[in-house]
Amino acid sequence: MTVTEDITRSLLNWRLWYFLGMYDIRQRYRRSILGPFWMTISVGVFILALGSLYSFLFRVNVRDLMPFVAAGYTVWTMMSAVLSESCLLFVSNSNVIKQISTPYFMFVLQLVWKNLLVFLHQLPILVIVLCVFRIWPGWPGLLALPGLFLLVVNALWVSLVLAIFAARFRDVTPIVTTFLQVILFVTPIMWTPSLLPHYQWIVQANIFYHFVEIIRAPLLGQIPGALSYAATGAATLTGTAFALWLFARVRHRIVYWV
Asked: What is the pTM (predicted TM-score) of this model?
């Protein structure tokens, strides 16, 4: 099966990864009264605690920091979940890969779709925060849609690349886990870029900041900077090209690695 056939079959079998993604969420909260809304509650408690704590530590008005943290952390949870779960994507589905001739890209679509559903479950918390602090995004809020589209496209190629490397080199999983723990505090999610007025180049050099910003800024009624769109657009083109090249080169070896 070629790469083109793999991706085409995966897209045509959308009902399969669509229902499998929903099934994963249901299984995670099986026999739970609130079900997937536990994700919403846990994120809400985290945002409330961190927003209050960091506003006190950094001496920032909670009215300014809480919506910033809520929007940024909601996007970050989706990004970090995709990165961490993609490392075990092919390994955890090794039984299916070894026994059935199935397109590999279908597993990537299932993973991204599942985490997109989780992201949508967490949006009510952001809506509540925006209402409490009386923030109305207005027409700039519509820019969050193309920002989310860019994030999803990049999540697809990143998941594919990490799944391939993690299947070949099992050390990738702990490396990514450690990296995510560090990048959470380095990226302006729980603190604003204004706290580093003389080191803005550090913020602008962080690609994670730009992916968060193209969604967070519109939700807060702001227009993302041109640099954020340029950085995420360049990452989309180069990353997708690299992922397709890598997939075409090693696809036939994945079954032996898992």
From this structure: 0.89
